[in-house]
Write a structure and sequence with these properties.
The chain is built from twelve helices and twelve strands. A hairpin with a 4-residue loop joins strand 6 and strand 7. It has a domain at about 5-210: Ribosomal Protein S5, domain 2 (2-Layer Sandwich). The protein has about 400 residues and is α+β, with helices and mostly antiparallel strands. The strands form two sheets. Strands 1, 2, 3, 4, 5, 6, 7 and 12 form an eight-stranded mixed β-sheet that branches. It has helices at about 80-90, 115-130, 140-145, 145-160, 180-185, 225-250, 260-265, 270-280, 285-300, 310-320, 325-335, 365-375, and strands spanning about 5-20, 30-45, 50-55, 60-65, 100-105, 190-195, 200-205, 210-220, 340-345, 355-360, 385-390, 395-400.
Length: about 400
Protein backbone atom coordinates (compact mmCIF):
# COMPACT_ATOMS: atom_id res chain seq x y z
CA UNK A 1 0.00 0.00 0.00
CA UNK A 2 1.34 3.43 -0.93
CA UNK A 3 1.89 5.70 2.07
CA UNK A 4 -0.01 9.02 1.74
CA UNK A 5 2.20 11.90 0.70
CA UNK A 6 3.58 14.06 3.50
CA UNK A 7 3.52 17.82 3.10
CA UNK A 8 5.91 20.07 5.00
CA UNK A 9 4.70 23.50 6.11
CA UNK A 10 7.12 26.20 7.29
CA UNK A 11 5.12 28.69 9.35
CA UNK A 12 7.01 31.68 10.83
CA UNK A 13 6.38 33.71 13.92
CA UNK A 14 5.70 37.42 13.67
CA UNK A 15 6.64 40.76 15.21
CA UNK A 16 4.07 43.48 15.72
CA UNK A 17 6.22 46.57 15.31
CA UNK A 18 3.52 49.15 15.94
CA UNK A 19 -0.21 48.92 16.58
CA UNK A 20 -0.92 47.32 19.95
CA UNK A 21 -4.33 45.69 20.43
CA UNK A 22 -5.99 47.36 17.45
CA UNK A 23 -6.84 44.56 15.00
CA UNK A 24 -10.06 43.32 16.62
CA UNK A 25 -11.36 46.90 16.65
CA UNK A 26 -10.73 47.50 12.94
CA UNK A 27 -7.47 49.42 13.37
CA UNK A 28 -4.13 49.12 11.58
CA UNK A 29 -0.67 47.89 12.47
CA UNK A 30 2.84 47.38 11.10
CA UNK A 31 4.03 43.77 11.19
CA UNK A 32 6.64 41.43 9.77
CA UNK A 33 7.42 37.73 9.93
CA UNK A 34 10.63 36.39 11.49
CA UNK A 35 13.10 33.71 10.43
CA UNK A 36 12.11 31.40 13.31
CA UNK A 37 9.26 29.05 12.49
CA UNK A 38 7.13 26.02 13.20
CA UNK A 39 7.75 23.10 10.85
CA UNK A 40 4.72 20.85 10.42
CA UNK A 41 5.01 17.54 8.56
CA UNK A 42 1.44 16.52 7.74
CA UNK A 43 -0.06 13.49 6.06
CA UNK A 44 -3.72 12.58 5.45
CA UNK A 45 -5.44 9.89 7.51
CA UNK A 46 -8.25 7.50 6.61
CA UNK A 47 -9.97 8.32 9.91
CA UNK A 48 -11.75 11.67 10.49
CA UNK A 49 -9.47 13.00 13.20
CA UNK A 50 -6.64 15.45 13.78
CA UNK A 51 -3.56 14.01 15.51
CA UNK A 52 -0.72 16.39 16.37
CA UNK A 53 2.63 15.27 17.77
CA UNK A 54 5.02 17.71 19.42
CA UNK A 55 8.43 16.25 18.64
CA UNK A 56 10.28 18.23 21.32
CA UNK A 57 7.93 17.47 24.22
CA UNK A 58 6.92 14.03 22.94
CA UNK A 59 3.28 14.86 23.55
CA UNK A 60 0.29 13.95 21.38
CA UNK A 61 -3.10 15.61 20.99
CA UNK A 62 -5.83 13.73 19.14
CA UNK A 63 -9.16 15.33 18.24
CA UNK A 64 -12.12 13.88 16.29
CA UNK A 65 -12.97 15.94 13.21
CA UNK A 66 -16.44 16.74 14.57
CA UNK A 67 -18.27 20.07 14.98
CA UNK A 68 -19.18 19.64 18.65
CA UNK A 69 -15.85 18.44 20.02
CA UNK A 70 -14.76 20.03 23.31
CA UNK A 71 -12.20 17.65 24.77
CA UNK A 72 -9.01 16.01 23.55
CA UNK A 73 -7.05 12.85 24.10
CA UNK A 74 -3.97 14.50 25.55
CA UNK A 75 -3.50 17.34 28.00
CA UNK A 76 -0.82 19.43 26.28
CA UNK A 77 -1.07 23.16 26.97
CA UNK A 78 -1.58 23.85 23.28
CA UNK A 79 -4.39 21.30 22.86
CA UNK A 80 -7.08 24.01 22.79
CA UNK A 81 -5.70 25.28 19.46
CA UNK A 82 -6.00 21.84 17.89
CA UNK A 83 -9.57 21.53 19.20
CA UNK A 84 -10.52 24.99 17.90
CA UNK A 85 -9.26 24.29 14.37
CA UNK A 86 -10.76 20.80 14.10
CA UNK A 87 -14.14 21.83 15.52
CA UNK A 88 -14.52 24.93 13.35
CA UNK A 89 -13.36 23.25 10.14
CA UNK A 90 -15.68 20.28 10.69
CA UNK A 91 -18.65 22.53 11.40
CA UNK A 92 -18.11 24.97 8.52
CA UNK A 93 -17.31 22.29 5.93
CA UNK A 94 -19.30 19.19 6.93
CA UNK A 95 -18.39 17.23 3.79
CA UNK A 96 -14.64 17.57 4.39
CA UNK A 97 -13.73 14.66 6.62
CA UNK A 98 -10.18 13.68 5.65
CA UNK A 99 -8.16 13.67 8.85
CA UNK A 100 -4.48 14.52 9.28
CA UNK A 101 -1.50 13.50 11.36
CA UNK A 102 0.96 16.32 11.99
CA UNK A 103 4.44 16.18 13.49
CA UNK A 104 5.50 19.59 14.78
CA UNK A 105 8.98 20.93 15.48
CA UNK A 106 9.78 24.56 16.21
CA UNK A 107 12.54 27.12 16.44
CA UNK A 108 10.08 29.68 17.85
CA UNK A 109 10.41 30.41 21.56
CA UNK A 110 7.10 29.29 23.14
CA UNK A 111 4.92 31.76 25.07
CA UNK A 112 7.24 34.60 24.05
CA UNK A 113 4.88 36.90 22.16
CA UNK A 114 6.17 35.77 18.74
CA UNK A 115 2.79 34.16 18.00
CA UNK A 116 3.79 30.51 18.12
CA UNK A 117 0.17 29.63 18.92
CA UNK A 118 -1.17 31.39 15.82
CA UNK A 119 1.58 29.75 13.76
CA UNK A 120 0.32 26.38 15.03
CA UNK A 121 -3.25 27.35 14.07
CA UNK A 122 -2.11 28.29 10.56
CA UNK A 123 -0.11 25.08 10.19
CA UNK A 124 -2.99 22.80 11.21
CA UNK A 125 -5.56 24.78 9.24
CA UNK A 126 -3.39 24.72 6.11
CA UNK A 127 -2.77 20.98 6.43
CA UNK A 128 -6.49 20.24 6.84
CA UNK A 129 -7.42 22.42 3.88
CA UNK A 130 -4.85 20.77 1.61
CA UNK A 131 -5.64 17.21 2.73
CA UNK A 132 -9.29 17.82 1.85
CA UNK A 133 -8.55 19.53 -1.46
CA UNK A 134 -10.39 22.66 -0.36
CA UNK A 135 -8.98 24.87 -3.11
CA UNK A 136 -10.99 22.79 -5.60
CA UNK A 137 -14.25 23.13 -3.63
CA UNK A 138 -16.63 25.93 -4.56
CA UNK A 139 -17.74 26.55 -0.96
CA UNK A 140 -14.15 27.13 0.17
CA UNK A 141 -13.24 29.32 -2.80
CA UNK A 142 -16.32 31.47 -2.20
CA UNK A 143 -15.56 31.96 1.49
CA UNK A 144 -11.74 31.98 1.35
CA UNK A 145 -10.76 33.47 -2.03
CA UNK A 146 -7.20 34.66 -1.28
CA UNK A 147 -4.40 34.74 1.29
CA UNK A 148 -5.84 37.67 3.24
CA UNK A 149 -9.16 35.86 3.51
CA UNK A 150 -7.40 32.64 4.53
CA UNK A 151 -5.60 34.54 7.28
CA UNK A 152 -8.87 36.02 8.53
CA UNK A 153 -10.54 32.61 8.52
CA UNK A 154 -7.70 30.98 10.44
CA UNK A 155 -7.88 33.90 12.87
CA UNK A 156 -11.61 33.24 13.33
CA UNK A 157 -10.85 29.57 14.03
CA UNK A 158 -8.58 30.65 16.89
CA UNK A 159 -10.63 33.50 18.35
CA UNK A 160 -14.10 32.08 17.72
CA UNK A 161 -15.18 35.14 15.73
CA UNK A 162 -17.78 34.88 12.96
CA UNK A 163 -16.36 34.86 9.46
CA UNK A 164 -18.17 35.40 6.17
CA UNK A 165 -21.13 32.99 6.02
CA UNK A 166 -20.03 31.19 9.19
CA UNK A 167 -21.20 32.02 12.71
CA UNK A 168 -18.71 32.17 15.56
CA UNK A 169 -17.96 29.69 18.32
CA UNK A 170 -15.85 29.48 21.47
CA UNK A 171 -12.45 29.43 19.77
CA UNK A 172 -9.62 29.05 22.27
CA UNK A 173 -11.17 31.56 24.66
CA UNK A 174 -9.00 34.61 23.88
CA UNK A 175 -11.08 37.21 22.04
CA UNK A 176 -8.49 38.75 19.75
CA UNK A 177 -8.23 39.42 16.03
CA UNK A 178 -6.48 38.19 12.89
CA UNK A 179 -3.38 40.42 12.93
CA UNK A 180 -1.00 37.56 13.70
CA UNK A 181 -2.43 35.26 11.04
CA UNK A 182 -2.29 38.06 8.45
CA UNK A 183 1.36 38.74 9.31
CA UNK A 184 2.23 35.04 9.12
CA UNK A 185 0.51 34.39 5.78
CA UNK A 186 0.99 37.73 4.00
CA UNK A 187 4.50 38.85 5.02
CA UNK A 188 7.21 39.59 2.49
CA UNK A 189 10.94 39.13 2.95
CA UNK A 190 12.87 42.31 3.79
CA UNK A 191 9.74 44.44 4.16
CA UNK A 192 7.21 45.56 6.75
CA UNK A 193 3.50 45.38 5.97
CA UNK A 194 0.94 47.96 7.03
CA UNK A 195 -2.41 46.19 7.31
CA UNK A 196 -5.85 47.29 8.45
CA UNK A 197 -8.42 44.83 9.75
CA UNK A 198 -12.10 43.86 9.66
CA UNK A 199 -11.78 43.29 6.80
CA UNK A 200 -8.06 42.65 6.40
CA UNK A 201 -6.45 44.92 3.80
CA UNK A 202 -2.88 45.55 2.76
CA UNK A 203 -2.36 49.32 2.83
CA UNK A 204 1.32 49.43 1.92
CA UNK A 205 4.66 47.69 2.22
CA UNK A 206 7.76 49.47 3.48
CA UNK A 207 11.21 48.10 2.54
CA UNK A 208 13.29 47.24 5.60
CA UNK A 209 16.60 49.19 5.58
CA UNK A 210 19.45 46.80 4.88
CA UNK A 211 21.73 48.40 7.45
CA UNK A 212 19.40 47.54 10.35
CA UNK A 213 18.49 44.31 12.13
CA UNK A 214 15.86 43.40 14.70
CA UNK A 215 17.20 42.30 18.05
CA UNK A 216 14.68 40.36 20.14
CA UNK A 217 14.80 40.03 23.90
CA UNK A 218 12.43 37.39 25.29
CA UNK A 219 11.77 38.38 28.88
CA UNK A 220 11.21 34.88 30.24
CA UNK A 221 7.80 35.95 31.56
CA UNK A 222 5.33 33.62 29.86
CA UNK A 223 2.93 35.36 27.47
CA UNK A 224 0.51 32.43 27.29
CA UNK A 225 -3.10 33.65 26.97
CA UNK A 226 -4.51 31.31 29.62
CA UNK A 227 -5.99 31.75 33.09
CA UNK A 228 -5.63 35.22 34.59
CA UNK A 229 -3.63 36.49 31.59
CA UNK A 230 -6.49 35.47 29.28
CA UNK A 231 -8.98 37.36 31.44
CA UNK A 232 -6.82 40.49 31.31
CA UNK A 233 -6.29 40.07 27.56
CA UNK A 234 -10.04 39.76 26.98
CA UNK A 235 -10.66 42.83 29.13
CA UNK A 236 -8.54 44.87 26.72
CA UNK A 237 -10.46 43.61 23.67
CA UNK A 238 -13.91 43.61 25.29
CA UNK A 239 -13.54 47.27 26.28
CA UNK A 240 -13.54 48.37 22.64
CA UNK A 241 -16.65 46.32 21.90
CA UNK A 242 -18.43 47.80 24.91
CA UNK A 243 -17.65 51.32 23.71
CA UNK A 244 -18.97 50.54 20.21
CA UNK A 245 -22.17 49.13 21.73
CA UNK A 246 -22.77 52.30 23.75
CA UNK A 247 -21.94 54.43 20.70
CA UNK A 248 -24.52 52.59 18.61
CA UNK A 249 -27.12 52.85 21.36
CA UNK A 250 -26.48 56.59 21.66
CA UNK A 251 -26.36 57.43 17.96
CA UNK A 252 -28.69 54.84 16.46
CA UNK A 253 -25.88 53.65 14.20
CA UNK A 254 -24.81 50.05 13.58
CA UNK A 255 -21.01 50.38 13.41
CA UNK A 256 -19.33 47.03 13.96
CA UNK A 257 -15.84 48.25 14.88
CA UNK A 258 -14.32 51.16 16.74
CA UNK A 259 -12.44 52.24 13.62
CA UNK A 260 -15.70 52.53 11.64
CA UNK A 261 -17.32 54.48 14.46
CA UNK A 262 -14.45 56.99 14.46
CA UNK A 263 -14.70 57.36 10.67
CA UNK A 264 -18.47 57.86 10.69
CA UNK A 265 -18.39 61.65 11.18
CA UNK A 266 -15.83 64.46 11.54
CA UNK A 267 -16.63 64.85 15.23
CA UNK A 268 -17.08 61.14 15.99
CA UNK A 269 -13.69 60.83 17.64
CA UNK A 270 -14.44 63.55 20.17
CA UNK A 271 -17.90 62.17 20.86
CA UNK A 272 -16.47 58.70 21.40
CA UNK A 273 -13.84 60.14 23.70
CA UNK A 274 -16.59 61.72 25.80
CA UNK A 275 -18.50 58.43 25.96
CA UNK A 276 -15.34 56.56 26.93
CA UNK A 277 -14.61 58.97 29.76
CA UNK A 278 -18.13 58.39 31.09
CA UNK A 279 -17.58 54.63 31.10
CA UNK A 280 -19.99 51.77 30.46
CA UNK A 281 -21.70 49.16 32.62
CA UNK A 282 -18.62 46.94 32.37
CA UNK A 283 -15.76 49.47 32.28
CA UNK A 284 -15.28 52.66 34.26
CA UNK A 285 -14.13 55.86 32.61
CA UNK A 286 -10.71 55.74 34.26
CA UNK A 287 -9.97 52.61 32.23
CA UNK A 288 -12.02 53.17 29.08
CA UNK A 289 -10.94 56.79 28.51
CA UNK A 290 -7.21 56.01 28.23
CA UNK A 291 -7.98 52.79 26.31
CA UNK A 292 -9.84 54.76 23.63
CA UNK A 293 -7.11 57.41 23.51
CA UNK A 294 -4.50 54.66 23.02
CA UNK A 295 -6.45 53.07 20.16
CA UNK A 296 -7.01 56.39 18.41
CA UNK A 297 -3.39 57.50 18.70
CA UNK A 298 -2.02 54.14 17.53
CA UNK A 299 -4.27 54.14 14.45
CA UNK A 300 -4.22 57.83 13.49
CA UNK A 301 -0.77 58.98 14.57
CA UNK A 302 1.72 56.29 15.52
CA UNK A 303 1.31 53.65 12.80
CA UNK A 304 1.41 56.15 9.90
CA UNK A 305 4.55 57.82 11.31
CA UNK A 306 7.02 55.32 12.98
CA UNK A 307 10.30 56.46 14.60
CA UNK A 308 10.39 58.38 17.83
CA UNK A 309 6.66 57.71 18.12
CA UNK A 310 7.39 54.06 18.93
CA UNK A 311 8.44 55.28 22.37
CA UNK A 312 5.05 56.94 22.69
CA UNK A 313 3.39 53.66 21.69
CA UNK A 314 5.17 51.87 24.54
CA UNK A 315 4.26 54.57 27.05
CA UNK A 316 0.61 54.37 26.00
CA UNK A 317 0.67 50.58 26.42
CA UNK A 318 1.93 50.96 29.97
CA UNK A 319 -0.67 53.63 30.79
CA UNK A 320 -3.80 52.51 28.95
CA UNK A 321 -3.54 48.82 28.09
CA UNK A 322 -1.84 47.97 31.39
CA UNK A 323 -0.46 44.90 29.63
CA UNK A 324 3.21 45.43 30.44
CA UNK A 325 5.24 43.84 33.20
CA UNK A 326 8.36 45.25 34.84
CA UNK A 327 10.56 43.04 32.68
CA UNK A 328 9.27 44.22 29.29
CA UNK A 329 9.23 47.84 30.40
CA UNK A 330 12.87 47.55 31.50
CA UNK A 331 13.90 45.79 28.28
CA UNK A 332 12.43 48.62 26.22
CA UNK A 333 14.18 51.37 28.18
CA UNK A 334 17.47 49.44 28.27
CA UNK A 335 17.36 48.95 24.49
CA UNK A 336 16.93 52.67 23.87
CA UNK A 337 19.66 53.48 26.39
CA UNK A 338 21.92 50.97 24.62
CA UNK A 339 21.58 52.72 21.27
CA UNK A 340 18.53 51.15 19.59
CA UNK A 341 16.86 53.45 17.06
CA UNK A 342 13.48 52.26 18.36
CA UNK A 343 12.24 49.55 20.71
CA UNK A 344 8.92 48.27 21.98
CA UNK A 345 7.22 45.33 23.61
CA UNK A 346 4.88 43.52 21.23
CA UNK A 347 2.10 40.98 21.07
CA UNK A 348 -0.66 40.43 23.60
CA UNK A 349 1.47 41.65 26.48
CA UNK A 350 1.50 40.46 30.11
CA UNK A 351 4.98 39.07 29.46
CA UNK A 352 6.63 38.08 26.21
CA UNK A 353 9.28 39.95 24.26
CA UNK A 354 10.67 43.30 23.12
CA UNK A 355 12.05 44.18 19.70
CA UNK A 356 14.86 46.67 19.14
CA UNK A 357 15.94 48.19 15.82
CA UNK A 358 19.74 48.28 15.75
CA UNK A 359 22.48 48.61 13.16
CA UNK A 360 23.29 45.21 11.68
CA UNK A 361 27.02 45.58 12.31
CA UNK A 362 26.36 46.35 15.98
CA UNK A 363 23.66 43.73 16.59
CA UNK A 364 25.78 41.10 18.33
CA UNK A 365 27.47 43.52 20.73
CA UNK A 366 24.15 45.27 21.38
CA UNK A 367 22.54 41.95 22.24
CA UNK A 368 25.37 41.07 24.63
CA UNK A 369 25.08 44.33 26.56
CA UNK A 370 21.27 44.24 26.50
CA UNK A 371 21.28 40.73 27.94
CA UNK A 372 23.78 41.66 30.65
CA UNK A 373 21.76 44.69 31.73
CA UNK A 374 18.54 42.69 31.86
CA UNK A 375 19.92 39.75 33.83
CA UNK A 376 21.60 42.11 36.28
CA UNK A 377 18.15 43.56 36.98
CA UNK A 378 16.16 40.30 36.77
CA UNK A 379 18.54 37.41 37.55
CA UNK A 380 15.63 35.04 38.23
CA UNK A 381 14.67 35.21 34.53
CA UNK A 382 18.00 33.85 33.28
CA UNK A 383 16.73 30.31 32.72
CA UNK A 384 13.88 31.28 30.40
CA UNK A 385 15.04 34.54 28.79
CA UNK A 386 16.17 34.23 25.17
CA UNK A 387 18.00 36.51 22.75
CA UNK A 388 18.10 36.53 18.98
CA UNK A 389 18.73 38.70 15.93
CA UNK A 390 16.43 38.52 12.93
CA UNK A 391 15.19 40.40 9.89
CA UNK A 392 11.77 40.61 8.24
CA UNK A 393 11.18 37.20 6.67
CA UNK A 394 8.82 35.68 4.14
CA UNK A 395 5.36 34.18 4.78
CA UNK A 396 4.23 30.67 5.64
CA UNK A 397 4.93 28.30 2.80
CA UNK A 398 4.66 24.73 1.63
CA UNK A 399 8.19 23.33 1.43
CA UNK A 400 8.56 21.62 -1.93
CA UNK A 401 12.24 20.73 -1.67
Amino acid sequence: MTRPATRRYIVPGRIELVGKHVDYAGGRSLTCAVDRAITADARPLDAPLVRVRDAARRSIVEVPLLPGIERTHGSARWSSYVVAVARRFARDFPRARVGIEVRVTSTLPPSAGLSSSSALTVAIGSALADANGMDSRAAWRAAVPDELARAEYFGAMETGAPYGPFTGDAGVGARGGAQDHVAILCAREESVGQFSYLPARLERRVPWPSEYALAIGVSGVSATKTGNARARYNRVSDSTRALVRVWNETTGRTDDTLARAIASAPDAGERLSHLAEQGTEEFDGDYLGPRFAQFREEVEVIVPGVGRLVDRSMAMAELALRNQVAETSFLTRAARHGGAVAASAFGAGFGGAVWAMVRTEDADSFLEHWRAAYLAKFPSRAEHAQWLVTRPAGPARLDTE
